[in-house]
Amino acid sequence: MMSFQQNISFGGCNPFMFGAFNPRLNFFLGLAGATAGIPYYPVMPTMCGCSIFNPYMSMGYSNPYAMGGFGSFNYQPQTFTYIPQATTNPFAPVTPSPVTAPSVSTPSTPASNPSSRAPETDNSQPCSQGMTLNGKGKGTQYGPEFLNKVKQIAKNLNCNYRDLIAIMNSESSVDAKTVGYNGASGLICFMPQYFDVAKIRKMSPMEQLDLVEETIRKSKKAAGFADNAKLSKGDLYALVFLPARAGNDVLCRKGETGKNGRLLRYYEANAALDYNHDGVITKDEMASRIDRKYVSDYSFLA
Predict the structure, then answer these.
(1) How many CB atoms lie within 10 A of CB 175?
(2) Residue 190: how many other CB atoms lie within 10 Å
(3) Whole-model pTM above 0.90?
(4) Which of these, 31, 97, 159, 227, has the minimum number of CB atoms within 10 Å of its CB?
(5) What is the per-residue pLDDT across 3-53, written as a single tens digit (0 to 9) for each?
(6) Which residue intervals of the chain bear CATH 1.10.530.10?
(7) DSSP-assigned beta bridge partners for residue 190
(8) Which architecture, in CATH terms, is 118-301?
(9) What percent of the chain shows pLDDT beyond 70?
Protein backbone atom coordinates (compact mmCIF):
# COMPACT_ATOMS: atom_id res chain seq x y z
CA MET A 1 0.00 0.00 0.00
CA MET A 2 1.08 3.53 -0.59
CA SER A 3 -0.43 6.76 0.66
CA PHE A 4 0.22 10.45 0.13
CA GLN A 5 -1.23 13.26 2.23
CA GLN A 6 -0.68 16.99 2.02
CA ASN A 7 -2.04 19.40 4.61
CA ILE A 8 -0.06 22.64 4.89
CA SER A 9 -0.37 24.59 8.17
CA PHE A 10 1.91 26.50 10.52
CA GLY A 11 1.35 26.12 14.24
CA GLY A 12 -2.28 25.24 13.59
CA CYS A 13 -2.77 28.47 11.60
CA ASN A 14 -3.73 28.27 7.98
CA PRO A 15 -1.29 30.28 5.82
CA PHE A 16 -4.23 30.90 3.41
CA MET A 17 -5.94 33.08 6.09
CA PHE A 18 -4.89 36.38 4.49
CA GLY A 19 -4.88 36.80 0.78
CA ALA A 20 -1.73 38.94 0.96
CA PHE A 21 0.14 35.84 2.11
CA ASN A 22 -1.76 33.39 0.01
CA PRO A 23 0.80 31.49 -2.05
CA ARG A 24 -1.84 30.92 -4.69
CA LEU A 25 -1.66 34.64 -5.54
CA ASN A 26 2.06 34.49 -6.19
CA PHE A 27 2.88 33.26 -9.64
CA PHE A 28 6.43 32.36 -8.76
CA LEU A 29 5.46 30.44 -5.66
CA GLY A 30 2.77 28.71 -7.69
CA LEU A 31 5.33 27.83 -10.34
CA ALA A 32 7.80 26.60 -7.73
CA GLY A 33 5.06 24.57 -6.05
CA ALA A 34 4.06 23.03 -9.33
CA THR A 35 7.68 22.14 -10.04
CA ALA A 36 7.94 20.50 -6.62
CA GLY A 37 4.81 18.46 -7.32
CA ILE A 38 2.52 20.36 -4.95
CA PRO A 39 -1.05 20.52 -6.32
CA TYR A 40 -1.92 23.96 -7.62
CA TYR A 41 -5.38 25.32 -6.82
CA PRO A 42 -7.04 27.97 -9.00
CA VAL A 43 -6.75 31.51 -7.74
CA MET A 44 -10.04 32.97 -6.53
CA PRO A 45 -10.48 36.77 -6.27
CA THR A 46 -9.87 38.46 -2.93
CA MET A 47 -10.55 42.01 -1.79
CA CYS A 48 -7.90 44.13 -0.08
CA GLY A 49 -5.79 41.01 0.33
CA CYS A 50 -8.11 39.75 3.10
CA SER A 51 -9.41 36.22 2.94
CA ILE A 52 -12.73 37.11 4.53
CA PHE A 53 -13.89 37.85 1.00
CA ASN A 54 -12.46 34.62 -0.39
CA PRO A 55 -15.29 32.34 -1.58
CA TYR A 56 -13.23 29.33 -0.47
CA MET A 57 -13.87 30.29 3.16
CA SER A 58 -16.34 28.57 5.44
CA MET A 59 -18.09 28.91 8.79
CA GLY A 60 -17.40 25.19 9.36
CA TYR A 61 -15.64 22.20 8.00
CA SER A 62 -18.82 20.76 6.55
CA ASN A 63 -18.92 23.15 3.58
CA PRO A 64 -15.47 24.58 2.69
CA TYR A 65 -16.89 26.48 -0.27
CA ALA A 66 -19.29 28.74 1.63
CA MET A 67 -18.98 32.52 1.37
CA GLY A 68 -17.61 34.42 4.35
CA GLY A 69 -16.16 33.03 7.58
CA PHE A 70 -12.79 33.06 9.27
CA GLY A 71 -9.38 32.04 8.08
CA SER A 72 -9.04 29.32 10.71
CA PHE A 73 -11.70 27.41 8.82
CA ASN A 74 -10.46 28.34 5.38
CA TYR A 75 -10.03 25.89 2.58
CA GLN A 76 -7.45 23.19 3.29
CA PRO A 77 -5.61 21.48 0.43
CA GLN A 78 -7.31 18.26 -0.44
CA THR A 79 -6.05 14.98 1.03
CA PHE A 80 -5.07 12.34 -1.48
CA THR A 81 -5.01 8.70 -0.49
CA TYR A 82 -3.92 5.92 -2.77
CA ILE A 83 -4.98 2.39 -1.90
CA PRO A 84 -3.81 -0.30 -4.31
CA GLN A 85 -6.45 -2.72 -5.49
CA ALA A 86 -6.38 -6.42 -4.71
CA THR A 87 -4.04 -8.36 -6.92
CA THR A 88 -6.31 -9.66 -9.61
CA ASN A 89 -5.78 -10.22 -13.27
CA PRO A 90 -7.68 -7.45 -15.06
CA PHE A 91 -7.67 -9.51 -18.24
CA ALA A 92 -9.10 -12.65 -16.68
CA PRO A 93 -12.53 -13.63 -18.05
CA VAL A 94 -15.45 -12.58 -15.89
CA THR A 95 -17.93 -15.25 -14.92
CA PRO A 96 -21.38 -13.69 -14.84
CA SER A 97 -23.45 -14.09 -11.74
CA PRO A 98 -26.53 -16.26 -12.12
CA VAL A 99 -29.60 -14.20 -12.92
CA THR A 100 -32.90 -15.12 -11.38
CA ALA A 101 -35.82 -14.61 -13.73
CA PRO A 102 -38.26 -12.04 -12.35
CA SER A 103 -41.47 -13.41 -11.06
CA VAL A 104 -44.48 -12.53 -13.15
CA SER A 105 -47.83 -12.22 -11.47
CA THR A 106 -50.84 -13.12 -13.53
CA PRO A 107 -53.32 -10.22 -13.54
CA SER A 108 -56.76 -11.05 -12.31
CA THR A 109 -59.51 -11.10 -14.90
CA PRO A 110 -62.37 -8.60 -14.80
CA ALA A 111 -64.73 -11.40 -13.82
CA SER A 112 -62.74 -12.14 -10.66
CA ASN A 113 -61.84 -8.53 -9.92
CA PRO A 114 -64.67 -6.12 -10.76
CA SER A 115 -62.65 -3.09 -9.67
CA SER A 116 -60.22 -3.71 -12.57
CA ARG A 117 -62.93 -3.11 -15.16
CA ALA A 118 -63.19 0.16 -17.01
CA PRO A 119 -65.68 2.40 -15.17
CA GLU A 120 -67.83 2.81 -18.26
CA THR A 121 -68.45 -0.92 -18.53
CA ASP A 122 -69.24 -1.58 -14.86
CA ASN A 123 -72.91 -0.98 -14.11
CA SER A 124 -72.68 -1.96 -10.45
CA GLN A 125 -71.09 1.28 -9.27
CA PRO A 126 -71.92 4.90 -10.21
CA CYS A 127 -69.43 6.33 -12.67
CA SER A 128 -68.17 9.83 -11.96
CA GLN A 129 -66.41 10.28 -15.30
CA GLY A 130 -67.96 12.80 -17.65
CA MET A 131 -69.72 16.12 -17.42
CA THR A 132 -72.33 17.01 -14.83
CA LEU A 133 -75.73 18.07 -16.15
CA ASN A 134 -77.77 20.65 -14.29
CA GLY A 135 -81.46 20.26 -13.53
CA LYS A 136 -81.28 16.49 -13.14
CA GLY A 137 -81.14 14.23 -10.10
CA LYS A 138 -83.44 13.33 -7.25
CA GLY A 139 -86.74 15.16 -7.21
CA THR A 140 -86.82 15.54 -10.99
CA GLN A 141 -87.94 13.30 -13.84
CA TYR A 142 -84.28 12.48 -14.48
CA GLY A 143 -83.46 10.96 -11.11
CA PRO A 144 -82.19 7.48 -10.13
CA GLU A 145 -85.21 5.81 -11.75
CA PHE A 146 -84.30 7.37 -15.09
CA LEU A 147 -80.70 6.16 -14.80
CA ASN A 148 -81.76 2.65 -13.82
CA LYS A 149 -84.12 2.43 -16.76
CA VAL A 150 -81.39 3.50 -19.18
CA LYS A 151 -79.19 0.74 -17.77
CA GLN A 152 -81.93 -1.82 -18.33
CA ILE A 153 -82.52 -0.65 -21.89
CA ALA A 154 -78.80 -0.84 -22.62
CA LYS A 155 -78.76 -4.38 -21.28
CA ASN A 156 -81.68 -5.29 -23.54
CA LEU A 157 -79.96 -3.77 -26.57
CA ASN A 158 -76.54 -5.18 -25.61
CA CYS A 159 -74.75 -1.86 -25.50
CA ASN A 160 -73.06 0.34 -22.94
CA TYR A 161 -75.53 2.44 -20.95
CA ARG A 162 -73.03 5.29 -20.79
CA ASP A 163 -72.84 5.35 -24.60
CA LEU A 164 -76.62 5.59 -24.72
CA ILE A 165 -76.72 8.49 -22.26
CA ALA A 166 -73.91 10.22 -24.17
CA ILE A 167 -75.96 10.02 -27.37
CA MET A 168 -78.95 11.58 -25.62
CA ASN A 169 -76.65 14.26 -24.25
CA SER A 170 -75.31 14.94 -27.75
CA GLU A 171 -78.76 15.11 -29.29
CA SER A 172 -80.81 16.88 -26.62
CA SER A 173 -78.70 17.45 -23.48
CA VAL A 174 -80.87 14.65 -22.04
CA ASP A 175 -83.97 16.85 -22.24
CA ALA A 176 -87.24 15.22 -23.37
CA LYS A 177 -88.70 18.64 -24.17
CA THR A 178 -86.07 19.49 -26.78
CA VAL A 179 -87.37 20.76 -30.12
CA GLY A 180 -84.82 21.38 -32.87
CA TYR A 181 -84.93 23.95 -35.68
CA ASN A 182 -85.96 21.16 -38.08
CA GLY A 183 -88.71 19.88 -35.77
CA ALA A 184 -86.63 17.03 -34.33
CA SER A 185 -87.91 16.41 -30.82
CA GLY A 186 -87.20 14.49 -27.64
CA LEU A 187 -84.29 12.64 -26.05
CA ILE A 188 -82.71 11.42 -29.31
CA CYS A 189 -84.27 14.05 -31.58
CA PHE A 190 -86.93 11.97 -33.30
CA MET A 191 -87.39 13.30 -36.83
CA PRO A 192 -90.85 14.57 -37.86
CA GLN A 193 -90.58 12.68 -41.18
CA TYR A 194 -90.81 9.38 -39.31
CA PHE A 195 -92.47 10.10 -35.94
CA ASP A 196 -95.47 11.92 -34.51
CA VAL A 197 -93.36 14.54 -32.80
CA ALA A 198 -96.42 16.38 -31.42
CA LYS A 199 -97.23 13.25 -29.44
CA ILE A 200 -93.61 12.72 -28.43
CA ARG A 201 -93.41 16.23 -26.97
CA LYS A 202 -96.17 15.32 -24.54
CA MET A 203 -94.37 12.22 -23.29
CA SER A 204 -92.51 12.13 -19.99
CA PRO A 205 -88.78 11.25 -20.05
CA MET A 206 -89.56 7.73 -18.82
CA GLU A 207 -92.16 7.24 -21.57
CA GLN A 208 -89.71 8.48 -24.19
CA LEU A 209 -87.14 5.95 -23.00
CA ASP A 210 -89.54 3.18 -24.07
CA LEU A 211 -89.68 4.73 -27.53
CA VAL A 212 -85.88 5.06 -27.62
CA GLU A 213 -85.51 1.33 -26.95
CA GLU A 214 -88.15 0.37 -29.52
CA THR A 215 -86.64 2.60 -32.19
CA ILE A 216 -83.06 1.36 -31.73
CA ARG A 217 -84.20 -2.25 -31.60
CA LYS A 218 -86.01 -1.90 -34.95
CA SER A 219 -83.05 -0.03 -36.47
CA LYS A 220 -80.67 -2.71 -35.27
CA LYS A 221 -82.63 -5.40 -37.03
CA ALA A 222 -83.08 -3.34 -40.20
CA ALA A 223 -79.33 -2.68 -40.38
CA GLY A 224 -78.62 -6.42 -40.34
CA PHE A 225 -77.37 -6.81 -36.77
CA ALA A 226 -78.31 -9.96 -34.90
CA ASP A 227 -80.66 -9.46 -31.96
CA ASN A 228 -77.92 -10.34 -29.47
CA ALA A 229 -75.09 -8.54 -31.31
CA LYS A 230 -72.92 -6.34 -29.12
CA LEU A 231 -73.20 -2.71 -30.22
CA SER A 232 -70.09 -0.57 -30.12
CA LYS A 233 -70.43 3.14 -29.45
CA GLY A 234 -70.05 3.80 -33.18
CA ASP A 235 -72.71 1.20 -34.05
CA LEU A 236 -75.10 2.64 -31.51
CA TYR A 237 -74.80 6.23 -32.68
CA ALA A 238 -75.04 5.16 -36.32
CA LEU A 239 -78.38 3.47 -35.55
CA VAL A 240 -79.65 6.83 -34.26
CA PHE A 241 -77.98 8.99 -36.91
CA LEU A 242 -78.53 6.99 -40.14
CA PRO A 243 -79.98 3.58 -39.27
CA ALA A 244 -80.20 2.38 -42.88
CA ARG A 245 -76.41 2.77 -43.19
CA ALA A 246 -75.41 1.68 -39.69
CA GLY A 247 -73.71 -1.43 -41.09
CA ASN A 248 -71.25 0.71 -43.08
CA ASP A 249 -68.04 2.31 -41.83
CA VAL A 250 -68.69 5.41 -43.96
CA LEU A 251 -72.13 6.80 -43.14
CA CYS A 252 -72.37 9.70 -45.57
CA ARG A 253 -70.36 11.80 -48.00
CA LYS A 254 -70.29 15.44 -48.95
CA GLY A 255 -72.45 16.27 -51.96
CA GLU A 256 -74.54 13.10 -52.02
CA THR A 257 -77.74 13.33 -54.04
CA GLY A 258 -80.85 11.22 -54.17
CA LYS A 259 -82.50 9.56 -57.17
CA ASN A 260 -84.22 12.83 -57.98
CA GLY A 261 -80.85 14.61 -58.11
CA ARG A 262 -81.45 16.67 -55.01
CA LEU A 263 -78.82 17.06 -52.33
CA LEU A 264 -79.50 14.62 -49.51
CA ARG A 265 -77.79 16.87 -46.95
CA TYR A 266 -76.91 14.01 -44.61
CA TYR A 267 -73.36 15.32 -44.58
CA GLU A 268 -74.10 19.02 -45.03
CA ALA A 269 -76.48 19.16 -42.05
CA ASN A 270 -73.93 17.40 -39.84
CA ALA A 271 -70.59 18.60 -41.21
CA ALA A 272 -69.38 19.34 -37.67
CA LEU A 273 -69.12 15.58 -37.14
CA ASP A 274 -66.44 15.35 -39.85
CA TYR A 275 -63.60 15.85 -37.38
CA ASN A 276 -60.78 15.28 -39.88
CA HIS A 277 -62.48 17.35 -42.63
CA ASP A 278 -62.08 14.70 -45.31
CA GLY A 279 -65.60 15.06 -46.72
CA VAL A 280 -67.04 11.93 -45.12
CA ILE A 281 -68.59 11.11 -41.74
CA THR A 282 -67.58 7.71 -40.43
CA LYS A 283 -68.69 5.44 -37.63
CA ASP A 284 -65.39 6.12 -35.86
CA GLU A 285 -66.15 9.83 -35.88
CA MET A 286 -69.54 9.13 -34.34
CA ALA A 287 -67.73 7.17 -31.62
CA SER A 288 -65.42 10.14 -31.10
CA ARG A 289 -68.50 12.30 -30.62
CA ILE A 290 -69.66 10.00 -27.82
CA ASP A 291 -66.28 10.31 -26.11
CA ARG A 292 -66.87 14.05 -25.83
CA LYS A 293 -70.38 13.69 -24.41
CA TYR A 294 -70.09 11.28 -21.50
CA VAL A 295 -72.18 12.21 -18.45
CA SER A 296 -71.40 11.50 -14.83
CA ASP A 297 -73.91 9.14 -13.19
CA TYR A 298 -74.06 11.57 -10.30
CA SER A 299 -75.98 13.97 -12.53
CA PHE A 300 -78.96 11.68 -11.88
CA LEU A 301 -78.18 10.74 -8.29
CA ALA A 302 -77.53 14.13 -6.68
Answers:
(1) 17
(2) 26
(3) no
(4) 97
(5) 433 444 444 444 444 444 444 444 454 555 545 555 544 444 434 343 333
(6) 118-301
(7) 185
(8) Orthogonal Bundle (1.10)
(9) 59
